[in-house]
Amino acid sequence: MVLPTHRTNEKPNNGKNSPFIIEEPNSKSKIWYHWLNIRFRQYMILEIFLIITLIMVLYKLQTISSQNNQVIEMVSSINSRMIILEGKIISGKPNENLKPLEQSIDDVLKNMKMYSLDDSKQSKSEESITPPPVNLPNNSSNIPKKGLILNAADYLRGASVDNAHSSRSNLNPIIGYDQTNLVLLDRPQPPTHKAWCSNEHNPVLTINLAKYIKPISVSYQHSKWTHHIPMSTPRIYDVVACLDFYCENWKPLVSNCEYSTQSNGTEQFCNISSYLNAPLIGKVQFRFKENYGDSQSTCVNLVRVYGESDKPFKVQKAKNLESEQLCNDLKWYYNNSYYFKYTLAEKSCSVLYENGCCSDCPECCEECLITDYNWSVVVFTVMFIFLWISIIFLLTVSVLAYLQERREKMGSR
């Protein structure tokens, strides 16, 4: 009787004759592609989706938490003020307690621009409204009794620059946010480093006005200068009223308006003659013809278009507790060098001016942007970059795995 023997050194003929042996990749490259094929093509899409969802949930929770903290701080501030008020009333000094409240109300009323529409209050309305110094007597017939004089080229009222029909400028870069509307941000003194600069020979600036107005005058204000007007400052310019969207049909309003050293102040006006009988306009175009120093670049700081409107415009509201908290936080971050917190906070020009933060932090308003880089922008940018990297990575892995499968099929033949 012959017993069966077990051969340990004999190879199973590479598994070709045995149905129970699974063929495995025998090279490192095949093992690597096999792992990527299984890992990324089947599981990575779900994992990326879960990661993105988790990031969005965490961001939402962080926003809710910050809002809750602000509410708690506001409530505690109100409680502390009430406790102090009650304590002083009990001590017999109620008038001193009301001084801060009365002072805050007076400050708000001073900052508000109240306009009257009644003929009986015409003299009071002339004191509250500060129109441009229109010195032409002919313009008096051009001003109705119930008209409201306003700067219709104010960004905070809704005016904007028509970039499609304006010259290219440094405030509208190829990479980055469009800050062109800084040239329309109506403020007492425009900063030097926020000018609209164009390298074209005769640049044009087209503006969509906030309201349809009957124009009275236009003005240009440069940043503060002492004895000599800086180079690149506009010297002579024209202003036309656009009669269509593309400003192909237009009507002249002011010709050869000069910004010179003979006039006082950084803002200089050019009146629109009443004999032009200009209609209601909603778009104007500034055409700069010369600048100081014959510079290649023309830099414009702030333009205004004054006119009459029969519709009342939005009046600035009193500052509430939320606005006060926002302004105090921004002031604290800026003055105490909390660069990271200040950078991530919402501090665009619209937010600062609408909440009345310029009196608390004038430096913030001087450095503000139309679209700032805050926390939401950073989160959106990170998620956008992460999403694109994930998509490119998945596509690359899929292509590599597909090519490897094709090579294996070609090799098996």
UniProtKB/TrEMBL annotation:
UniProt domain SUN: residue ranges: 122-310
Entry annotated with the keyword Membrane: yes
Record-given protein name: SUN domain-containing protein
Coiled-coil blocks: none
Organism the protein comes from: Caenorhabditis nigoni
UniProt GO MF annotations: protein-membrane adaptor activity
Region ranges (Disordered): 1-20, 119-140
Localisation per UniProt entry: Membrane
Annotated GO CC locations: meiotic nuclear membrane microtubule tethering complex
Main location, first listed in the record: membrane
Keyword vocabulary terms for this entry: Membrane, Transmembrane, Transmembrane helix
PANTHER family: SAD1/UNC-84-LIKE PROTEIN-RELATED (PTHR12911), SUN DOMAIN-CONTAINING PROTEIN 1 (PTHR12911:SF2)
Transmembrane intervals: 43-61, 375-403
Pfam family, one: Sad1_UNC
Matching InterPro entries: SUN1-5, SUN_dom
Entry superkingdom: Eukaryota
